[in-house]
Structure formats: structure tokens, C-alpha cells
Amino acid sequence: MEKVIIKAVKRDVIGKKVGVLRREGKIPGVVYGHHINPISILMDRREVTRAISGLTSSSIVTLDIDGEMHSALIREKQRNYLRNELIHIDFQAVSLKEKIRSKIEVILTGSAPAVKNFNGIVFHEKEFIEVEALPTDLPERFVVDISNLEKIGDQIRISDMKFSDKITVFDDSNDTVVTITGIASEQTEEEPAADSSEPEVVEKGKKEKAEE
Asked: Per residue in 145-155, pLDDT tens?
């Protein structure tokens, strides 16, 4: 992936005065880490929104803070959902030579035959898997193919997945990642089931919280 550089300046303004900066198109943030004192920063909203589009929690970015470079991970994004815009970002500065723990998102791909043949539902039980690795060895995401789930009750566990020998997985290998359930809603003759190649997915997990 192309190197992502985010320019920022140190920020002295805090509290309610930050709202003025947001109205001027700026986003406040903070950088913390094991080897540095927390740094309050300020970024251009348009530039940072474009820069982090498509990045995951394991994507490494380079923060240019007044000319001082820091490798970092995006740890939290606060968003105003009414205005559909970012309002704050937390970064964790990391050493590229030290292993860190991170939760990696699990993405499902493919179509499960059990959905079409038995009216099953794809139940996505585990959306993140916690691993440890050097920052440069952290995967962007884990992609799980569900095309071999043929009947109700079929499932994929962590033990069924393949991982690089450069990472250590901390979740239980018996944890279920995805399973096919038979809790399908009844269909009437007037409302036949729609023919769709995309399985219905029941999601678990926390979502980003909007700032009140």
C-alpha cells in the first residue's frame, strides 16, 4: 500500500474553543504511545478525510507533526453523523521494530449455498480477531470465504483459518467466526423471497459512537 502521510501541527487550544477550529475546517486529534508523551494535534479536515479513506485499524500512517515524523495506527475516530464528518482522531505512535497487539477486522466473501438452498442466514459471530505482530506485518483485514457453507449448522472457526507465521493469534482457536443458522423469516406467497447473490448478514460488535 502507498505510504500515507498526514500533516499536522501541535495544538494548544482545548475545550469549547476547539469548536471554532472545527468550523474553520480543522480536525483535532491526539497522538499517544509507549515512548512519547501525548501530543495534541490539529489537521485539515478535507486532507485527513481523504488520506484515511479505506484504511483499517492496522494500517500504518506517517504523521508529519511540524516536521517531526511518527509512525502511527488510527485507534479511534469520532464522527458527527448528522453532518457526516469526522470531528476527532486518536493515533497510537508505534515503533516499527516492536510487536504490538491489534484487533483485525474479519470480512466475509463469497456466497453460501445454504442461503439459497435452505433459506439459511449467515451469522457473522466474530468481526475482529486480536493478534500480535510487528506493525509492518499486521494484515489489513482477514478475508473469510463462506462459499463452502452448504447446509444449516455449517460454520467456520478460527482454527479453520490460515495465518501468517509472523503473527500470533490470541483469540481461542475454537471461537466461531461465521455460522449458518435456520432462523429465516417466513415468506408468504404474496411476498416471495427475493433472489439475491448477497447473503443476509447478522452483525455483532461495537460501532463508532457519534459525539453528542
From this structure: 999 999 999 99
Closest CA to 177 of 197, 202, 155, 209: 155
Distance of alpha carbon 121 from alpha carbon 149, whole angstroms:
11
Question: Is the entire prediction scored with pTM above 0.70?
Answer: yes
- Cell numbers at residue 100, please? 504490538
Sign of the CA dihedral running 49, 50, 53, 56: negative
Mean pLDDT, residues 9-19:
81
Which CATH number is correct for 5-93, 2.40.240.10, 1.20.1290.10, 1.10.10.10, 2.70.70.10?
A: 2.40.240.10
Confidence of residue 72 (pLDDT cuts 50, 70, 90): very high
Identify which of 11, 38, 39, 16 has the alpha carbon closest to the alpha carbon of residue 27.
11
C-alpha cell of residue 94: 508505534
100-203 is a CATH 2.170.120.20 domain: yes
Contact 141, 106 (CB under 8 A): yes
